[in-house]
Predict the structure of Alpha/beta fold hydrolase.
Amino acid sequence: MLTFTGAAGGDAGNVLLLHAFPVSAQMWEPQLAPLAESGYRVVAPYVYGFDSSPSRPGWSMDDYARDLARLIEALGWSSATVVGLSMGGYQAMAFYRLYPELTASLVFCDTRANADTPQVFSVRQEFRKAVMEKGSEEAAARMVPNFFAKETYASNQPLVERTRESIVRQAPEEISEAMRAIAEREDSTELLTEIACPTLIVCGMDDTVTPPEIATTMHALIPGSKLELIPEAGHLSNLEQPAMFNGILLEHLRSL
């Protein structure tokens, strides 16, 4: 069973929040209380080995999706809206591929559907080697500057530091395992054309990791989907502009 943090909420609906790499589920703290206060039952599972979650060497996105299904069953939910940011988006796609009947709706945030090119795959392997040699600080040094809009990175040091701390407390082995799972994920481009549930796509307008052009392409492929671009936000749009992000997410949930 996956370890998770959550908020009780009411009976408005169920929400799974899937976190980015290589931060933990604590990235969803700005969303947990507002969703619960609006009547939603919400949980944010941890990736294997992150924070208090048990390790699972060799895990895949499909493995994680299967454990999400077990989590939903254990919670007594019939379905859930699955919200995934970056790596969480890859997991949300894997979940929908395996369990469309458990998916009330999808929210893809700052993510992409295509698999890695050979060049990107090679870069990820180099990243894994560097983290194993130099430690989790290496992952933070490489990732954090690319997570935020330039203005945020320069002016909001508390947020930048919290994000850095969320990475450096993870074991290098677990960061490497998560990066391997990302590199080996399936291509989900064709899957997008088959999505039949309500779908929202959210992207920071200053996201340089998965730019708005990628979100626009996903929107064009998913029938009936809605696209929302958040100004003054980079890759972790839920952290940079939480009020705007929450408003967009709640509007989507209330439309179901």
